[in-house]
């Protein structure tokens, strides 16, 4: 199976505007932002989508959610508010088969989203 675009970013094969990185995940700005701040938090371990994670991934999943706050702080949206989204499957809006968490903010976000 060929590498996903996210694996290529993790491996530094293609550039990205990285805002945070640790041993478990990487966060970078989305190249097609849907808000003034739109970052993706991607685990370095390939899990195609949230529905394919299992019990052995619980620490990784918790780490991704805790990283949301770090990214919100680093991008200046922690105090004003933000939205966190995980897409799953075609109908859920998934376009890259590699689990990732969207962090959106920098403006008032409407509900329902789409």
Could you describe the 3D structure shown?
The protein has a single domain, classed as HIT-like (HIT family, subunit A, 2-Layer Sandwich), CATH 3.30.428.10. Helices cover 20% and strands 22% of the residues. It has helices at residues 5-10, 58-74, and strands at 18-21, 25-29, 37-43, 82-85, 101-105. It has a five-stranded antiparallel beta sheet, covered by helices on one side. A hairpin with a 3-residue loop joins β1 (18-21) and β2 (25-29).
Summed up, what is this model?
By secondary structure, the chain is α+β, with helices and mostly antiparallel strands.
Helix and strand arrangement:
Layout: H1 5-10, E1 18-21, E2 25-29, E3 37-43, H2 58-74, E4 82-85, E5 101-105
Antiparallel strand pairs: 1-2, 2-3, 3-5, 4-5
Helix content: 10-25%
Order of helices and strands: HEEEHEE
Could you state the CATH homologous superfamily? HIT-like
Q: According to CATH, what is the topology?
A: HIT family, subunit A
Q: Which CATH class is shown?
A: Alpha Beta
The overall strand count is: 5
Secondary-structure-based class equals alpha+beta
Overall mean pLDDT = 96
Annotated CATH architecture: 2-Layer Sandwich
Strand order, main sheet: write it out.
Answer: 1-2-3-5-4
Query: Strand content of the residues, in percent?
Result: 15-25%
**Given the C-alpha coordinates, what overall shape results?**
globular
Number of domains: 1
Low-confidence runs (pLDDT<50, min 5 residues)? none
